[in-house]
Amino acid sequence: MDLQRRLYGALTEDDAQADAGQVRAFATHFTALTATKLAGGLVDPKLVLSSLLVALGAPGGVIGALVPVREAGALLPQLALAAWIERSRQRKWFWAAGAVGQGIAALGMAAAALTLDGVAAGWAILGCLALLAVCRSAGSASYKDVLARTLDKGTRGTVSGLAGTIGAVGVLIFALLLSLGIIPGTPAAIAMVIAVAGGLLIAAGLIFTWLQEPEAEVGDASQGLGGLRAVFAPLRKDAQLRRYILTRTLLISTALAPPFVVMLSAGQGDSINLGHLGLLVLASSAAAIVSSYIWGRLSDRSSRQTLMFAGIAAAAVLALAAVVGTLTGDLGGAYGAAGFVFAAKIAYEGARAGRKTHLADMDAHGQKAIYTALSNSILGVMLLLGGLFGLLADIAGPALVLGVFAAMAAGGALVAVGLDEVQADAT
């Protein structure tokens, strides 16, 4: 009996230690992710940086390059980083260094906004954004692997969704302060906000170094990544990876749509000016607040269904915007744009949560970093090609582009039906 009690005590003590370790890991992930998500909202190229460059008198070509540089720059370098990451026994350092690098780049943007204007300010901020994007790629390429080895299934989507919600609350506060005039709509004030974002990113990197990460196995897969053939081998061999990448490609419509919603809302001469920036950020933040945690929890149950539902929601919202825009030539100015941005953002959060959790939970055959880098690099190319939709909008109007995006989202939902239920073996 004493032996049984001692054995039982030992088992429960081990379980308690394991649970405590999971709590610490969850807290570290949550704190670091929350800081980066808040910072990302404060340095948003679609709204904040573009408005800042307009106020600084930067050329339109530089302003138009913000989103492609930010999105593709964060994805395309990941294949080059993947082999390095796979050969490392601890991958948290890549994420931490990437976050610190992003913070330094954000501080560079703030300095440029305070000391430069016109063409010089535009190119300086675009260059800092490129650096930020490359540093972000290091974190993106490594994070899924670190997440999968430090947090149990059933909590991975939750930590991302919860951090997204809290981060969105912070961005919402920023939008309210901007809308009420407490934060003035001046380049100097926005530069200080960007500097705060830089500080948050540096703090996130330092916090992430505290994560207790077990050493990863370094096997033949990571030692044989010298050529492109080896890198692309998973794409040839894994049908589920191909289907996941196709689903994700079609659902980039949820990320590309908001600027065209804004463009359509100005179809009859209304302008989306600095006074409306707070309203649009409010709409985007509110959507993230009400949906991020829910999408995260749903992803932990079924990331496949999350991708399906997000695709259906995006198709409905974007199709409605296309129809209304075609019939009326307008979406109701800034308030109409805010409503559609709100709805489209909810769909985007679902696509984002679903694709992140699905990749974290799917069987990557010991090559999580390669799977992440491969899918992200392919998506980076697709996002660069997404710039062609701007030419289509110039020729045929933004309503047609939104109709194309609606069809893409519907196609993404349909393709997602064939994905595996990767959470089926979660405990």
UniProtKB/TrEMBL annotation:
> What protein does this entry describe?
MFS transporter permease
UniProt superkingdom: Bacteria
From the broadest rank down, the organism's phylogenetic lineage runs: Bacteria, Pseudomonadati, Pseudomonadota, Alphaproteobacteria, Rhodobacterales
Which Pfam families does the UniProt record give? MFS_1 (PF07690)
Residue ranges crossing the lipid bilayer per the database entry = 47-69, 93-114, 120-138, 159-183, 189-211, 245-266, 272-295, 307-325, 331-348, 369-393, 399-419
Question: Any idea which UniProt keywords this protein has?
Answer: Membrane, Transmembrane, Transmembrane helix
Q: Which GO terms describe its molecular function?
A: transmembrane transporter activity
| Cross-referenced PANTHER family | INTEGRAL MEMBRANE TRANSPORT PROTEIN-RELATED, MAJOR FACILITATOR SUPERFAMILY (MFS) PROFILE DOMAIN-CONTAINING PROTEIN
Query: InterPro entries under this entry?
Result: MFS, MFS_trans_sf, Sugar_transport-like
Q: What is the organism field in this record?
A: Pseudosulfitobacter pseudonitzschiae
